[in-house]
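Let us practice reading a record.
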Amino acid sequence: MIKVVGWATLILTFVLLPAFPEIACTAVIVAMIASIPFLVRDLRRGAKISRAQWMVLIATGLLVLALVPTTSAADNFVVLLALLPIPLSIALTALLSRLQGSLSLKTLSSLALCGAALAAAISAYDVYVRGLSRGGFLTMNPIHMGDIAAILGFFALAGLLVDRWQQRTFLVAGPVVALLAVLWTGSRGPLVAMLGLAALTLVYFVAVGIPQKRRKPMALTASMALVVVLGHGLSTGWLASVRGIDQFMNLAGGNAEAVDSSTQIRLWLYEGAWNAFLASPIYGHGAGFVEAAAVYMLPNNISGWDHLHSDLADFAAFAGVMGLAAYFLLLASPLVAALERPANTRAATFYLALVLSAGSFAMGLTNAVLGILTLTVLFSVSLAVLPLVNVEREASESE
């Protein structure tokens, strides 16, 4: 029964999340809560909390402490429920450890590929069958659909970092179907994040996915190729024409008047968040952080938002410096979890952690990620899996 719950949690998260977000998130959180007795049992038997898990606990504690001076009623602490899956990932790790090594990196990569493909299929259905201008609305916000697809698509590539990777070349379809999903959703933030993840993946694979003697020259070649491509894109203007990047280019060039209405709204939100942070830099404004930021948006006051369309803005306005410290602790925890693994399994799992942390950060620059239920569940389950996934002999060692 335990294995059934464990595998159901993984399939719901890495495959079915794009199609059934409410069902998947509810079931996964229930599984996390049900995992607590397993964690207690393991601790009583001498198991230790890992450094990555301590980072999560410290981050959670910082957010709770930051709420104390800004909260007049106990029910204001309910706002932290949006992040509850992250500390619950510690308990989930205890349950998933009962899978007894049957969760391989190849299996996880294949599940992620299926999830990215499902996100693309749903987005395509919205565009070509329902006639919508943006895909993803069938089950969730298109931006969130694009974020999920991007993370899962690049997760799929991790299966190429282990032995006999030639048998799994189909995994390269991961970023391809993810890109299709993102394009069909019309979401700019995930698209820009995918470009960054693609560059990061290229350099990482060259650096660790090939025999030791060829790593340095290949890494140098790949880096130079990226510089050439970026230089060409900037000099010819085609890079600035990509939807999403064009807005960043306008801002970088000081041409704020040329941005579209969506970007302008975000600028107002960020301005409000910055001023709210300056007004209470240590512990922020607590549960009323959006309202606090709205005060500083005049004369372009915007009401009715649940968040400030940026994780940095949200955590800064919500809990000040304490919130930002918590945010970066959470983002760094997957990297530390991967580094805590044995050296001969570290390269492949560190790639997963890199995609999770860097992807969440990049996507969180222009929209909320941590605190959005679907994305928080994906982050949390991925964090729980990192110490456990069974990595076969890595590709670079087998050549």
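A brief commentary: The chain has a mean pLDDT of 87.
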